[in-house]
Model the fold of this input.
Amino acid sequence: MIKRECIERVKAVADLYDIVSGYVQLKRSGSNWKGLSPFTTEKTPSFFVLPEKRFFKCFSTGYAGDVFRFLELKENFSFLESVEWLAKRYGIALEYEGDGSTKTHTKSKNELFDLHGEAMAYFRKKFLENPRIQDYWQRVRHFSLEAAERYGIGWAPPGDRDLLSLLKKKGYGEEALEQCGLFLWNTKDKKNWNFRFAGRLIIPIQDVQDRVIGFSGRITEAKDDGFAKYINSPESPIFHKGGVLYGLNHARRSTGGPLVIVEGQLDAIRCWESGIHGAVAPQGTGLTETQMHLLRRYTSQLICLMDGDGAGQKCALRLVELSFKAAMESQIVTLPEADDPDSFLLRMGKTGFEDLKRESMIAFLCRTCLPQGVEATAIEKANFLEKVYGMIHGSDSEVTREIYLDELAQQLQLNRHAIGNDFRNFCGDRKFTLAQPVVSPSPEKKTREGKLRTAEYDLLSLVLHHEDLGLSVAYLLEDAWLEDGEQGRLLLKVLNEMQAHTWEGPRSDNPIFSPDEVNELFSILATEEDGEDPVAMANACIRSICATFARKQLEKINQKASEQRKFTKNKNLLDDPTFFEKLQAEKLRLRQLLISCPRIGGGGEGVIYGK
Done:
C-alpha cells in the first residue's frame, strides 16, 4: 500500500550499518563489516554487512537481504511494518496508494498513534508533578522512580480538563478525539464529557513497534463504590485487546529462552525489574488464539506464572488448551495461593522464581482435572482421557503426540499400548489436518558448500546483477527449456516479472516468491559475480540450458519410438500413420537447436557447462 517511490526513499536514506550495529558489534573486514550472527549463537563471526551493496549476509543461518529484510528477520516485522518503522526513525513522510478510504484509514491510524504519544507525555508530566502519586509508586507498589520512567508510568488527575484542550490545540480532529477512548462523551451533547482514567495511575500499552496504542488505569486506593481496580482503553482502530499482549515490545528483545505469561501489567513490570525480561500479560481478558499465534512468532516455549488462586489456575488451564492448538510447549509454575507474581517476586526475587517447581502440560492437566490421579475410577479416567485426547490430536506432529501419550500413560500408570489404541480409536483412524499456526521464522536452508551450480543458477545470478540483460534473456529463453527444479523455477519467476516490467528486486511482500526464494535471491545479490563479460556468460548459460533440454527431448523421442516398434512394425496399424514422420521432424528440430542455439547480441562462448 505504500507508494513505491516512498519505499525507495526510505531504502536510500536508511543506513544498514546504523541499524545492524544496534544488534551486533561490527568490525571492519576489508571493505565490509563483520560480526557475530544476530540470528543464532556462535563464537566465530560469520555475519557480514556489505556497504556497497547495502546487503547483509549471514553464513551461519543462510540469511541475506537488505535493511527491510533484516528488520523482518530480527524483529518479526512484516515488510510494511519495517518500512514504517524506518520511515519514523529517519523522519520520512510516507504516502499510500489505493482508494480514498484506504488513505483516510491510514491517516486516521497515524493520527491516533501521535495522539496517544501526546497523552503519554501529558500523563508523565502529571506523575512527576504529584508527590503523593510518586510516594504511592515507591512506598505502596515498591517500584523505583527510574522504573516509572522506563515504562512510561503516568497519572491522570481527577477533574482534569487540560488534556482535551491540549489535544485540540495541537490540531487533533473530532473523530480522533472520540476514537482514542480517553474521554466519555455525552452522545447528545459533545460538549459534556468525562475523563475515562480520572484519578488513576496510568500504564501505557505499546505495540511491538513501541507505539502507544492504549492505556490501562489503576486505582491508587481501595474503594467500596463499585470502582474497578483496572480499566483499559476501549477497542479502537489501533487497539484490539484480544490481539495485544502488554510488554511484548519489551519481552521480544530478551535473549532467548521461553516467554513468561503473567496476569497483569504490574506483574510484568515486577518480572522485568527482577531480571525476568521475557514477561508479557494479556489485556484484562482471557488468552486468545490470536495472542498465542503472536507469541509463536517469537518462541515455541512458554512459562505460565499466574496467580495462585482459583482464577489463576483457570487461566493456566486455558493457556494449556491453547498451547496444544498453537503447537507450543508450556510449563506451569504454581505460586502459593495467597501470592501473585508481583508479591512473590518482591519477596523472593528471581532466585525464588527459578526454584519454583515447573509442571509439564500433561502433568498439570492430570493434577487439576483428575485430582484423584491413579486412584480415580475407570469411568473418571476415561472421561478425562477423552478431554486430553481432544487436545493432543490438535498437534500436527506425530512424534509430539507420541511423547504426550507416553507421559499420559506414565502419569496415570496405564498400559502405553492401551493408551495408544484408545487414542487411535478416539481419532477414528483419521489423520487430522490443522491450519498452520503463525510461527516464528526459521532459518532458511543454508547454501550447501560444493553444491553443483547449474546453468539456471548462473543465469539467474547474471540477470540479478545485470538487470539490463533480463528482458533480452526473458524474450529469448523458452519456459520449456528450463529444468523443473528449484533454480529453474526461480529463474522463470524472475524472468516473467522482468518481462512484465513488474520486477522491483527481491521483496518479501511479493506473493510470487516464497520466503526461501526471497532469501536465495538476496543471497545471490550479496555474492560477488563471476567473470568480466556478462553477455558472454549469459550466452554460455543459454547454450547449456538449450542443449540440455534438446538432449533430454531426443532421448524421450528415441525411447518413445523404440517402445512403439515393439508393438507393431506395420505403419498401417498405428492410430496415427504419420507417427514416425512426426517424431523424425521433431528430432530434426531438436538437432538444429543443438547446432544453432539462440543468443543475445555480442560476447563469446564463455564458460562451458558439463554435459
